[in-house]
Amino acid sequence: MEPENHTTAVTDFMDFTLLGFPDWHVVLSFLFLFLYVLILAGNIAIFAVIRTNPHLHKPMYFFLSNLSILDICYSSTTLPSMLVNSLTGRTAISFHQCLVQLYFFVSLGGAECLLLAVMAYDRYIAICNPLRYSVVMNQIICWQLATSSWISGFLNSVLHTVMTSKLPFCGDREINHYFCDVPPLLRSACTNTYTSKTLLYVVSVFLGMSPFVFVMVSYIRIIAAILKIQSAEGRRKAFSTCSSHLIVVTVFYVTANFNYIGPGPGDSFDVVRLSSMLYSGLTPLLNPVIYCLRNKEVKAALTKAIRKKLSVKDNGR
């Protein structure tokens, strides 16, 4: 007679329980709905304007349109399910749903880390080496950089998803988080996760810290170039734009790196959940505002599109 096995293996495909925010269902329902609607509206509007306006068919706006698609997909991996869970009070998520959510969330997050670095490089070439800009950032190079960002993110996620899927989970299989992600799943596993944690750390340094350092170096050089501008008004506008970009980028990279490279033993789960909300929910909302709505060309194109839409409606009456 075989001995009873008290360890529930992940291959049993049992449900997980997302602990989330148990005491804030009603408030979070409105928050998630409001946040998701704004993210969709802002990023869809930016993408549509960039793709339909020939004047915005430039490398900078090509990357911005990619960022808009990324942010729509990125927020869609977590916010709709969080909204449903908050409305229904449901905390269970199946094994397969959890892995699918984890795969796409990590894929899109990794792609965004790289794409933000590409965008910083684009701005560096445009400001610090403008005479070579059209050569360095030609259409082929732009497509290669954007495609590489997407592919790298999705390939990276395969490693984490496969490694996590092989872990055994015991007891109630509770995940102290509001969506499936690698760090909370590793903390819930009932086995030594040293290999998975090492992989997570190494890849996070490569896809998280390295792009962040690259972005900071790029902006330091950009600021140095801005200081050489003779016009005080020109310097002010350039600094205003750069500071806005840096704020959003810093929030994204710092909070994401905090979660993946590892919170300390003294960090509460509330801190981890808050940092997750900042990089998974807040930055997709701020990106279209900071990168586009403060841009004169995009604002002019948006205004023109809105006026055209209103005039069509008026003529149709």
Automatic annotation (TrEMBL):
Topology in membrane: Multi-pass membrane protein
Spans through the membrane: 24-49, 61-82, 102-121, 133-155, 199-226, 238-256, 276-293
Annotated InterPro entries: GPCR_Rhodpsn, GPCR_Rhodpsn_7TM, Olfact_rcpt, Olfactory_GPCR
Gene3D superfamilies to which the protein is assigned, alphabetical: Rhodopsin 7-helix transmembrane proteins
SUPFAM superfamilies tied to this protein: Family A G protein-coupled receptor-like
UniProt superkingdom: Eukaryota
Record has Cell membrane as a keyword: yes
GO MF annotations in UniProt: G protein-coupled receptor activity; olfactory receptor activity
One GO CC annotation: plasma membrane
UniProt-annotated location(s): Cell membrane
Keywords of the record: Cell membrane, G-protein coupled receptor, Membrane, Olfaction, Receptor, Sensory transduction, Transducer, Transmembrane, Transmembrane helix
The keyword rRNA processing is annotated on this UniProt entry: no
Domain G-protein coupled receptors family 1 profile residue range list: 42-291
PANTHER family hit by this protein: OLFACTORY RECEPTOR
Family per record: Belongs to the G-protein coupled receptor 1 family.
Name this polypeptide is given: Olfactory receptor
Gene: LOC115464556
